[in-house]
Design goal:
Elements: H1 2-22, H2 24-43, H3 47-77, H4 83-118
C-alpha cells in the first residue's frame, strides 16, 4: 500500500515536471509564485495572508495543470480542428484566466497596503 502511494506521488510530480517543461504559461506562473513567496517573506505576511496567497497560487497552478491535461487529451483525440475541441480548449483557458485574475486580486489586497506603506512619499 505504501509503495503504491509513493508511486502515485511520483506520477504526480512527473506530471507537474512535464507540464513545467512544456508550458510557457506555467513557467510564468512558477516565476510569479517564487516572487510572491519572496515578497511575502520580505513584508512578513501574517498566517491568514500566507493562507490566502497559498490558496491563490495553488488555484492558478491547478487550473494550469487541468488546462494542460485537457489540451493534451484534446490534441490526442482530435488532431484536426473540430469546433468542440476548440470549445473545450477555450473553456479550460477561461478557467485559468479566472484563477489568475482571482490570484491577482488576492495579491493586490494582501500586498498592496504593505507596498503602499513602503513607498517613499
Amino acid at each position: 500500500m505504501l509503495r503504491r502511494r509513493a508511486a502515485s506521488f511520483g506520477h504526480a510530480f512527473r506530471g507537474v515536471g512535464a507540464a513545467l517543461r512544456s508550458e510557457l504559461h506555467l513557467q510564468f506562473h512558477a516565476v510569479a509564485s517564487v516572487l510572491a513567496l519572496g515578497l511575502g517573506l520580505y513584508v512578513k505576511l501574517t498566517g491568514i495572508e500566507w493562507a490566502l496567497v497559498a490558496l491563490a497560487v495553488a488555484g492558478v497552478w491547478a487550473a494550469e495543470l487541468f488546462n494542460t491535461a485537457i489540451e493534451t487529451l484534446t490534441n490526442l483525440v482530435s488532431p484536426e480542428y473540430h469546433p468542440l475541441a476548440g470549445k473545450a480548449k477555450d473553456v479550460a483557458a477561461g478557467a485559468v484566466l479566472l484563477a489568475a485574475l482571482g490570484a491577482l486580486a488576492v495579491g493586490a489586497l494582501v500586498f498592496g497596503p504593505r507596498l503602499w506603506a513602503l513607498w517613499p512619499r
